[in-house]
Amino acid sequence: MSLGLHILLDVAGAPFATLDDAVLVERVLVDAVRSMGAKVLGIHIHRLSPQGVSGVVVISESHLTIHTWPERGEAAVDLFTCGDAGRARTAVRALATALGAERTRIEEKQRGVDGSR
Amino acid sequence: MSLGLHILLDVAGAPFATLDDAVLVERVLVDAVRSMGAKVLGIHIHRLSPQGVSGVVVISESHLTIHTWPERGEAAVDLFTCGDAGRARTAVRALATALGAERTRIEEKQRGVDGSR
After folding, report:
1. d(CA B57, CA B32)
2. ipTM
3. Is A110 part of a structural domain of the chain?
4. What is the extent of the structural domain holding A94?
5. Chain A CB contacts of B104 below 8 Å
């Protein structure tokens, strides 16, 4: 039995300004969590120097993380959830759109030593 | 070119008491980050009810997360790093040992839309 669903989202072709805006990135993460009907337990957003944002949101038994490379137009997002898979997929797609992604790569994994990947 | 290395570690057969000890889990995460020569930017550890721990550590352009299921003896750990791959692998193996894992499943991914997985 799986421990949870892990969705790996990689984004490319997103605007520099969007990926370098820590306030916007935080709002996008929180919106994603809320759209899943989940509750934010904790959040850390860091703007890196000279550019880029790293952020993590802790949800109960779950998390959502992001790292952005504005100079490349790229970002890596991870959503780990024990909640509804359909809502999680919808939230991840909306998140990619909110970041202005031109291209995405989405992969799903069922976690756990005995889970199928 | 890859955005970074993502190591997915799933653990099984670990003691209930270890996986349910938020203080111990926090120490294990911080030890792993330090062993990589990285700096903790932020940390959130939550003990869940009735059992289990969720934790995230933000490192510069990187993160380390854990979710534990003491009643199953299982945990899911993710390390995303832009640092040295060898030190990251060593840190992840040490982390599994510190949790008392009997069995592990480790997978590596190069992140990014154009990265090879």
Report:
1. 10
2. 0.88
3. no
4. 4-100
5. 113
